[in-house]
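Closing statement on the magnesium ion sub-project.
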Amino acid sequence: MAVIKTNDLTYTYPGATKPSIEKVSLTINKGDFVILTGPSGCGKTTLCRCFNGLVPHFYNGKLEGTLTVAGLDVAEHQIYELARHVGLVFQNPENQLFALSVEKDVAFGLENFAMPREEMRKRVEWALKMAGISELAERPPHELSGGQQQRVAIASVLAMQPDIMILDEPTSFLDPLGAEKIFEVINDLNKKLGITTILVEHRLDLAAKYANHVIVMDNGKVALTGSPREIFSSEEARLIGVGIPKATKLYQHLKKNGVELKSVPVTTEEAANLLREVLKNA
Amino acid sequence: MSVFEGFKFRKVSSVVHNLDPRVKFFFVLVLFVMAVLFTNFLALLVLFLVPLPFVFVAKVNRQWLRSLRGAALLAIFIFATNFIFGYFYPTSLSGITQPVDTLFEYVVLLERSVAMTLRFVVLISSFSVFFLTTSPDHLGLALQQSHVPYEFCFAFTTAVRFVPVLADEAQTIMDAQKARGLELERGNLFKRVRNYIPILIPLIVNAIRRSLELAESMESRAWGASKKRTNLYELKLKRADYVLVVISVLMLICAVYVWLFVPVPSLTTLLSL
Ligand SMILES: Nc1ncnc2c1ncn2[C@@H]1O[C@H](COP(=O)(O)OP(=O)(O)OP(=O)(O)O)[C@@H](O)[C@H]1O
Ligand SMILES: [Mg+2]
């Protein structure tokens, strides 16, 4: 079942001469884990802003085509209405946390919904637990590490129990280990709670294994869309400059040199297993 | 950076910190009113002693001393003006007549000037106890529950939260510009002020970018979804708060009674007996 559906979506920022996204037609299904990738400036962030109504309501500008998110026409509904269904986690953890304690930050959205205090308490505790940061509840967010801050940001979106969670390069300020932890939290939420996840990411080595759908954008357009294996092994992805996982690259090299693995690996473990099989047969 | 140190509120817990900020503010106001009522040295000395237990219970003595030290210059100024004006325009009320010549008259004048200075110190001290023991979070909450519009309270807590961030940023920019050869401490006053432009511009640009991101994040989390927001925290008066209210009211009643009916002797007359 489609939870996000766009048709010929084109958007131009106010004052810009050319559209930042152009004729984007996409379908994202309920429960999907989508990776959205592509070269810098290709319009990934802009597309994310469309999904929760920041575009066009916050940025103004010209939006053409149709966009339905969780059954709502984005052009017709305010950002706060969409916020019940879509949560957006931003790149810089520092600028999306503004309260003086973690729990207060996590409660921010619920306070806006005028949720009664008792229920809000429970919801905040639940969100903190899901993000694995229960023990940070009373700490000031600005004194936490980048990884912890990003998990607070995730919890603060999760508290609103959205159907869709969008994360725009949530790990670009983090080291690889911190990044992996974030991916695991996100993956848990996707698999256990069935939250549709859209992850904008360059470092596919770490993230690719969680996804079941990859969208590659280039120059404001959707260049490729499909399963991770299809996309990563395609020639086009390489030409666009997608950060193809090393395991998939290894597959391509071997293939060029006459060694065919049985399927396309995305993770190192998969590649190892496939290689072992080839070696056994040799 | 020491200027900004004061803004970094550490989460501390003590009986005084946990008091309701509204009650604490009431207490400070009562002190304020009393300090204005009295011009007598002994009375003001008592008023100075009243908030001291709070300082020690909350363990903020170091910061408290620092704020008093900060006010020292102004205190000296107040003392000097009182003394000089008292010398040239003695009033019959204070028991000294022109010209001020006897030792007794000098001592009276001195006591009066010290009392006026002490009044100022009492004000500074009690306000600093309030601000040193009240977290910005609590203060924002108190504002909100006093029906100050939420936007204002939000702006207040956000400002408090971002002051240390901006201070850090200013330091980084300063270091970066110095590394590129900017000399801050060169030239006359005008030039020195101008030297700060390459620091201010990136700081302002960054602050604007930051506020845009902040606004985006708030919007995404349903800012403005309902007319009447709820709040995770709620200030509730506890027993200690009621005790402090009672103490404050009693103090005020006593003070007014003394002011009306009991002439407090001055130190000079007391000693010369
Ligand atoms: N607020 C804005 N106003 C005007 N133009 C913008 C704005 N934000 C982005 N753009 C333009 O829109 C285009 C797409 O930008 P976008 O931020 O969506 O790219 P991106 O894929 O997220 O890049 P990155 O990987 O660097 O984050 C760029 O050409 C950019 O200059
Ligand atoms: Mg981006």
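Chain B has two domains: 2-134+237-272, 149-220. With this model delivered, the sub-project is considered complete and its resources will be redirected to Aim 3.
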